[in-house]
Amino acid sequence: MNKKTIYWTGGIAAAVLIVLIFWALFGRNTDAGSSDQKNLSSYINDENELMNQMMQDMENIAPAGNAALDFLTGMIPHHQAAVSMSESYLKYGGSDDELRQLAESIIQVQKQEIQQMQTMIDDIKKQGTQNAGQEQTYLNAYEKMLSAHHMDHASHKSPKNVDDAFAQGMIMHHQMAVDMARAILGNTDEEQAAALAQNIIESQNAEIGQMQAILKRS
Question: Of the four, 12, 46, 54, 199, which is 20 to 30 A from 153 by CA?
């Protein structure tokens, strides 16, 4: 084999090696991008289904004659949706460590609060207390909140990844809980329900601020 042949063969080998390296890098990035988009699409589909089911459940609640009962009965499906959204976020590969910790906290805390609310509902029903005036005032605010939330969800910004989608959706979801909690304060004599509402306002407002900060840095 002469020098010209050696150089020619070496050049081909080097070119092939470069092509293989670029193909591997490009293919890997393409696969990763495709996977990220698939996860984002799957999460958004989950969120939309969960929100639609939640809204249907909340709109179909029959007045019970007691504002606290109406509040608790509506807040349970709202909490259940938050838990399911958080589980979906973790399932579809959310990568922000702070958001993942928040999602895990939402699952734990809101599952506990669902149990608390179910116990409160049983206790209030046993008491049999009713107040039509308080209930109507609460329900008026509740219906306005549901209508406003429909419009907010329709104006949802296009997220660039699962982290953005979860944070944007959960901010709106938390704001809905805060609005519900504010509506019940002053319209119930049930101390436990009022205490829960105050806790929801404080804790979820703090989490809204946390998620807004995460979105700004992303």
Answer: 199
Supply the CATH number for residue 100's domain: 1.20.1260.10
Give per-residue pLDDT as tens, 59-102. 999 999 999 999 999 999 999 999 999 999 999 988 899 999 99
Domain hosting 82: range is: 33-217
Asked if residues 54 and 80 have their Cβ atoms less than 8 Å apart, the reply is: yes
Query: Is 170 part of any domain?
Result: yes
What is the C-alpha separation between 114 and 110, in angstroms, rounded? 6
174 contacts 207 by C-beta, under 8 angstroms: yes
Q: pLDDT tens for residues 94-123? A: 889 999 999 999 999 999 999 999 999 999
Q: What are phi and psi of 9, to 5 degrees?
A: -65, -40
* 8 in any annotated domain: no
